[in-house]
Amino acid sequence: MKVAHLILTYTNPKLTERLIKRLSHPEFDFYIHVDKKFSIKPYLYLQQYPNVFLVHNREDVRWAGYNTIKATFKCIKEIASTGISYDYINFISGQDYPIKSADYMVNFFERNKGKEFIEFENIEEQWLEALPRITKYHFVNFTFRGKYSLERFVNFFTPKRKLPGDLKPYGKSMFWMLSTDCAKYVVEYVESRPHLERFFLFTWGSDEFIFQTVLMNSEHKDKLVNNDFRYIDWSAGGSHPKTLNIQDFEALKNTDDLFARKFNANADSKLLDMLDQL
Predict the structure, then answer these.
(1) Where do the coiled-coil regions begin and end (predicted)?
(2) Domain span at residue 179?
(3) What's the whole-model pTM score?
């Protein structure tokens, strides 16, 4: 059961190294994409581990912008180009940490082979607050001055946008565990339709709905399990999850999830020590 753990990061290479050590297993490889805005030098030492690879074709990731999807697509293509037959690609961030052992995860993937794990809700019926992400124009992926004023102007004078090709919109969390074939399907579907890429370029938070939308409108939908097995606490409110601390240990200990986010390795090393004993 060969798994490629894909890590999008820009924060703490020591936390990434700790994750790699925690999940050390002959069946696991790690592909690290460092945001192009940041130096890759602090991460170079991680190549000392034989199962660690730094993604070469990096992207300037912009929060809630389409560049996050571009980075993810580049990583999937780079993983596929290795010729290694990975059963799954597991997509995580640099502030994630495992709450189950490597052996537990290998067993999980073996028991569930053929299933695809990704959270999804119908945006038109269930996740209604996300609908303006698609129906309005958003310039979050751009950096020119006055972009928000222009955004308001454009949305005032233009009709609501609609997904091309009669696609029904689905979305939720940006993280997933998909077979390599399924992940490649999404990349090829979007990149072979330039009009769809242009549409997504002017959306907000596309990383939270592109994979779900493409897969739920495809023959793969019957294989999807509506669970990404991530423990994330949104109780702090706002658009960012709570940073977990030692008071969260019991909840983490008792969950069936495989990973949790987000962590601050410097502030909560004791919590990570306790998770390593699970």
Answers:
(1) none
(2) 3-276
(3) 0.95
Find the radius of gyration of the CA atoms of the chain. 19
Tens digits of residue pLDDT in 93-127: 999 999 999 999 999 999 999 999 999 999 999 99
- Number of domains the chain is built from: 1
Q: Give the mean pLDDT of 172-192.
A: 97
